[in-house]
């Protein structure tokens, strides 16, 4: 994994006096430090856990030959001289090499693809380029910038083609495609590829395919996008073009590997950033366990905007965004700051596109001084200069942390403030204890599996409806193409002809949900029978069990029934002061071992498994903290699927080794299972909900005790393999976090307690968990000697 720049740890904000020239920022920091320490009983609690300072880094430039017209356009907008990474990327693209640029936010990655596109157009006005963004908001933001940049270039056209484009305008775009077409994978899959004959002139002249923010193309979504890109290449090649791929990514550990797995072609990688980096102050604020972290985040937000700092707070859920925004506005009203009340807004997915764009414009123009947002504002949407970023909880990955922190202090000479308010969570508390690692540690790897066995046949079927598929198309559609075609033929979904296999299914594209893996369930409001949305079939038993509180479009619904036969979830709108957390019980059967090695007497294996999950009940939890209200038992059918897992196989004598020391062995491995899952996102671009676990003193296939960590997605998306590759580091950091936690018997901060444990976190033994984790590490140490 790639390591980031080192910061300087400070003992007090007084050390920033000679580093920060902005009196607003100094005033806010002084007030923050004064309020950080508070008396709790007989001791003083300091919530300001760490202060880090990162120096500004000057730019590095490199001149290259540019077309005079392009040079003129760039000079008019003060975009010259080019940074080193921009010049290097453009030079490689001119050699018709696929390029991925993996540099930080606001480093000018867009010029790496725009300059070659403009030069190609000037040389041949028929040349076309396709731009793909993971979100419609980013696509529209880029369109505004491109139109502004190319306004004076006669004949050059750029247009967005997505679900928000009026039908009449879409028809005109198909008849007369622009030089640069901006869209997203969804529209490419549902609207363009099935109708490629209407786009023949576009595909015939396609020179470039731009993939923006490709670190977002991972997991299930990434696997779907990988296959959509392969189908796109197949059609482009059929029309006689061979486009160059230009990819842009946030800083990730494996940009070259990720781009090559995603596209199926070789890439040149550019990682050395030549753009300037403004100075940043990073503060870690830890209210846990005495105070409510959300309440503290609201007060910090109010303090920042009251000091005149343009502020963004990032939350981990839509529900928290709405609650925090409401509380902030109520508090501003109470303290008589109505002038600020109108300058604060919330931003998340689920809002109408025009409403989101209005908020973006107001933030950019300065009409808003503060916004509370989800990750929907994480990607490269331009919202202007920001001063302060508040992270309400660790975002889940260093990549997201860097993207969000990159929102502030973008202008040279400015300084940005980043405050992470730690929650009662294993990763949050790990960074409180190890603040240097938040921005100076190693970034995660992105992973995509284009040959996921659950979704690849769907894309082969789609391809066969676009153009007859031959067995020789395995270069596009994977090494198992022949087997997949035979199975589709047996199922009467394709027919073999002299030209290849053709689809017998009408509009197969419409049946593929590219942001999920299983056939969806329909959400139905029983008061009126209206369909209000969908939920992925792979998640329905976890999220939509009877009695669950389901949030949709900022409204709470109570799940009153689950129609498995007709794939429907029956909901009723409700107002409740609690939300629900499922309790899951799991069993794992080993199907195939793919990789294995040993650490001392502990065997570590990665392979294919069959998982049987059952939601055995749910816990009612108050919306704003406090003890859980009650646990409701359930009796539901099991959900069975095949996936990938990593497992630790312990020697039978391990039971005696632990229990002879007066500890509970089962409680120890159960605690290890929870703690390992809690720390897994530190090594993979995943969330703890992407994983499940089983720990047992005796597994019949192991002949003894073991811990299984499995992927919660049918077919797997590569998380288990990444954890297998980083096993020792994963175990070591889990051990450190458990050992350094001051709790007596396990808590959410050390990770031993799991909010979704189907056994209600019983049994657990913290001392035994530490002993078992250390046993694994000592086995590694003995090997090294």
Question: Features of this protein?
Answer:
35% helix, Rossmann fold, globular, 8-stranded mixed sheet, 785 residues, 5 domains, alpha/beta, 26 helices
Care to describe what's here?
Helix 11 packs across helix 12 and helix 25 crosses helix 26. The chain is an alpha/beta fold. The chain has an 8-stranded mixed beta sheet, sandwiched between helices. It starts with 7 loop residues before the first strand and ends with a helix. The chain has 5 domains: 199 residues, 3-Layer(aba) Sandwich (Rossmann fold), CATH 3.40.50.300; 203 residues, P-loop containing nucleotide triphosphate hydrolases (Rossmann fold), CATH 3.40.50.300; 46 residues; 56 residues, no CATH class; 202 residues, no CATH class.
Oligomeric state: single chain
Count of helical stretches: 26
Estimated structural class: alpha/beta
Return the domain count.
Answer: 5
Residue-averaged pLDDT = 91
Question: What percent of the residues sit in helical stretches (DSSP H or I)?
Answer: 25-40%
Strand order of the largest sheet: 1-4-12-17-16-13-15-14
Tell me the span between the first and last alpha carbons: 25 Å
Assigned CATH class of the largest domain: Alpha Beta
How many E-type strands? Answer: 30
User: What spatial form do the alpha-carbon principal axes imply?
Assistant: globular
How large a portion of the residues is in β-strands, by DSSP E? 15-25%
Major sheet description: 8 strands, mixed
The parts where pLDDT drops under 50 for at least 5 residues are: none
CATH-scheme architecture of the largest domain: 3-Layer(aba) Sandwich
Q: Return the CATH topology of the largest domain.
A: Rossmann fold
Q: Superfamily at the CATH H level of the largest domain?
A: P-loop containing nucleotide triphosphate hydrolases
Q: What is the gyration radius calculated from CA atoms?
A: 27 Å
